[in-house]
Every structure is written in structure tokens, then in C-alpha cells.
Specification:
Number of domains: 1
Radius of gyration: 17 Å
CATH superfamily: Ferric-uptake regulator, C-terminal dimerisarion domain
CATH class: Alpha Beta
Number of strands: 5
Distance between the termini: 39 Å
């Protein structure tokens, strides 16, 4: 088992390198989960549903008209804050089906 720990460190170093060159991106999870996925340039723009109990993460895309409205809202918020936005991510935090109490 100790041997596995050495390899895990190598995996995370490699993920860091892949993130630095724009192949993958870190996706913050809940409660203490971090996920990595291919960069949006490779798989397309999307958003996430994040379970705050188990850390499950599900992708979703908005219809084009809603995505456009979201882009407009982000641009307006950035302008008011004198911030230059280059992209956005939307993570909806809640409980997945398995963690939700009946």
C-alpha cells in the first residue's frame, strides 16, 4: 500500500502539469473533493451540479438562449466591478438523488 502512495503523488504532479498547459482543469467539489476534467476547449462549455455531501459531480449544459443571458449577466457584473472576465463556470451546489432525504 505504501507503494501506491508514491504513484498517487506522481499522478497529482502530472495533473498539475496538464492543468498548467490547458489540457485539464480542476473542478472544485464538495465537501473536500477536487475533480479534474478535460478543458472546455476539448469537450465544450458546460456547468456542474455538485453534491455537498458525497461530492458527486454531474455536467449540464444550458440552452443557447439561457447561456447567452448568463454571459450578458456575467459581463454586466464584471463591468460594474471593473473586472475583465474571460470565461465563466456555474456550479450548482445541493444534494444528489442518493444523498437527498426522502
Amino acid at each position: 500500500m505504501a507503494r501506491c502512495g508514491r504513484h498517487r503523488g506522481s499522478v497529482y504532479r502530472n495533473l498539475g502539469v496538464l492543468a498548467d498547459i490547458g489540457v485539464v482543469q480542476a473542478i472544485a467539489g464538495y465537501p473536500e473533493f477536487t475533480r479534474y476534467e478535460l478543458d472546455e476547449a476539448l469537450i465544450g462549455h458546460h456547468h456542474h451540479l455538485a453534491c455537498m455531501t458525497c461530492g458527486a459531480l454531474a455536467d449540464f449544459a444550458l440552452p443557447p438562449d439561457l447561456e447567452s443571458q448568463l454571459e450578458d449577466a456575467v459581463a454586466a457584473i464584471a463591468k460594474r466591478a471593473r473586472f475583465t472576465a474571460s470565461k465563466h463556470r456555474l456550479d450548482v451546489v445541493g444534494l444528489c438523488r442518493d444523498c437527498r432525504t426522502p
